[in-house]
Amino acid sequence: MHRLLVCLLLAGSAPFWGRFQHRFTASAASKTEKQVALTITVTGQGDIVFRDGDNPCKVLKKYCKTVDGGAVSKEDCFAQLHPLVVKQVSGLWERLRGKLKVDAGFFMDCEPFRFRASDYAEDVRVSHSAVEAATTRNSSGIIQEMLLLLERAMQRDREALQTFNIKRNQLKLTDAEKVDLYRQAILLLPNNLFIVDQLGLALLFLDREDLARRLWANAVTRGLWAHPLQRPVSRFVPGLTSKPWHDKRDYPFITLLEAGYLDIKNELLHNLKHRRHLFTEEQENLHVGGDWTELRIRSSGYGFTKHTQYFPETMRHIRNCGQDFTSIKFSAIQPGTHIRTHTGPSNERLRVHLTLLHSGGAKIRVGTDWHTWTQGEAIIFDDSWEHEVIHTGSDMRVVLIMDIWHPELPESQRIVH
């Protein structure tokens, strides 16, 4: 089966696309004919022409019906051309967003969204109170308010961005509401890592994994990430060796941490007994069922917290291992907790878990592989890979979480963003 060769004609430099280039042309036809917004030349076939107001999905599907059947089938034509068209259009978004009739399905193989209003009440993965709130509050009004904040943030309004981040947690949007929000947000910012990931997750949690996986696969084709399962939501650095799980034997400092396990555990137990209030609820709304709390010792970008005074032995072992940790915190989950699929902010870091309390029943998936925790031992993984946690045991699981820079990241780039 011959593959289509796509050659985009040159009209000025376009280094972002490498060997793929673009051209804009103006229509020489009559005044009543819509202007050409984008032309893509396909070797051995006719041009793909997108005019003002065109829906790219319809244009591409119609084009593939005209392709020489002896060279390639309509299905193969679409499968080969769609990722390249998406890459071109999203790369030229500032010029094309007002010209083409693009909808969210364009970014996932032109598959349409099919959700009913009743899906709000069918979102069984959120609490009853959240579902009840979603059915009584003005969801469409909330979505529009959030979109306006995003538009202001696009104009470098820092306050609007901060407000958006606060509201998205406080409002406890249901998965159906998130689909509604992010399928419109992606039309504002199609290359934003967070928005693309969040739309996919909302689809995933509403049992539309097919659409979610297509969205992420196309994002990889567009160069946003290197792998559909590795989706850092803030910053992706190409070229760093990437794998979900790392061998702790490659990181000697972990042996020193494990040697201090009993001291750290005893100090934790003392504080759980006398200062339980120091542990606060996780704020990202990532879990369902059970309970997930944390106590921060060091926050990325903010330094050590005042809580270090209650953990002198922990701090002594942390200092003695000679490792620069960008973030340190205790993380506790109760039985019945499910931390849903998510990814970390950047592939610049690796995450270490030193297991302090675990009698069994809890497990973690990173990438496609499930591991568990063993009390007194550590695990290390790349949390920019898709991961989730399920606890079906009978006792609380507590780990000390420590983040380190990826060992291949140059010193000059080790900057908290």
TrEMBL record:
Residues 260-407 form the Aspartyl/asparaginy/proline hydroxylase domain. InterPro entries: Asp/Arg/Pro-Hydrxlase, ASPH, IPNS-like_sf. Keywords: Signal. One of its GO terms (molecular function) is peptidyl-aspartic acid 3-dioxygenase activity. The keyword Signal applies. Residues 1-18 form the signal peptide. GO terms for cellular component: endoplasmic reticulum. The keyword Signal applies. It comes from the Eukaryota. Pfam families: Asp_Arg_Hydrox. PANTHER family: ASPARTATE BETA-HYDROXYLASE ISOFORM X1, ASPARTYL/ASPARAGINYL BETA-HYDROXYLASE. Belongs to the aspartyl/asparaginyl beta-hydroxylase family. This is Aspartyl/asparaginyl beta-hydroxylase. It comes from Geodia barretti.
